[in-house]
Request: fold
Amino acid sequence: LLVEDNVSFALDIEMILDELGYGVAGIVDNGKEALQIIKESKPDLIISDLSLKGEMTGIDLINAVKGLSIAVIFITQYRDDHFYEQAKKLKPVAYLVKPFDKLTLRSCIDTAFSGMLINSENAEETTLSESFSFEDFFYVKHNGILTKIRVCDISSVQSDGNYCDIILKESKKYAIKISLVNLIKLLPSPQFIRIHQRHAVQSQLIEKIDAVDNRVFISNQYLPIGKTYRSLIMKQIRKL
Reply:
């Protein structure tokens, strides 16, 4: 989402974003319209000027949505330390003073998305801070293309040594280089539960539990329940 009251500058940034392959959820010049788009579209990144039309400033806007965990890049023509100190409290990815070039903006956008990115296939395992978690979504890089994975769409994850397969509800599968232990730490708990040494599933998508053969039915397939995990699973489900 681009929030900028200078039409000419907004068009320049839109062109840069288009060249870089990013979709734009909207371009608005005031906080009120920005809040509406944020509510409807839930953008991954907000690029906002500090000075906007209307009563809200860029800082007011980001203050209003700071609980949504959306990455922010502030842009401004002000070189005053006062504005920088105000903006810094909101922990933006970057604070850019106009004019800036495409490479600078690209670098800041890459930084914004790097925390949400897991490289697939032959890439090295991504190192993430312990405080980071995939509450809503993350990105998988495959053949140079970033694909957004919504956590709610994940059916299960399966370990294959140092790799994991992320399996979506529609049976799409993405291989990433990360251990199952580390991936589970990043996924929201107790939404995801481990059922086997090699498997973890999204608990609300479990359709059947076969206590005789020790397996669960999820997304049209049966997955095994490890003996170590059986009692934990039974404690977490509701039974009548």
About this structure: The CA atoms of residues 8 and 110 lie 24 Å apart. The chain is about 30% helix and 30% strand. The longest strand covers residues 154-160.
